[in-house]
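Input record (one chain):
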Amino acid sequence: MQITRSKFFVPLFAVVLGFAMLTAQWIGGDPKNGLISLVLMTVLGVLVLLGGRSDTVRGLRGDGRDERFHRIDVMATAVAGSVLFGTIIVASLVQMARGEDAAPFSWLGVIAAVTYLAAIGVLRARG
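The corresponding structure, as predicted from the sequence alone:
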């Protein structure tokens, strides 16, 4: 059984991410919001774990994945990636127009573009 197909993977990942957020915010001098982040991520993890027999929740959780949900997941990931790509471009342009440093957004754009092109190359070579 793959770990990502376990119904515990996403809930545990949410809690681990909550602790990472707590740690980062604590280091940044904001332990109160770090604790809020941990609580919110833990509640999200519990909701996903106890989400019942819903096909959607089981698909997101990993224990209800099938070919149909896999296709839905791939399409949803593509839509999210396209929206994020567009957002990074717009954010970079806004920063440039303000005369401010666009580097954080530009670097994200470069990473996304290089990853996209590498994936195209690898998938094309495999297929």
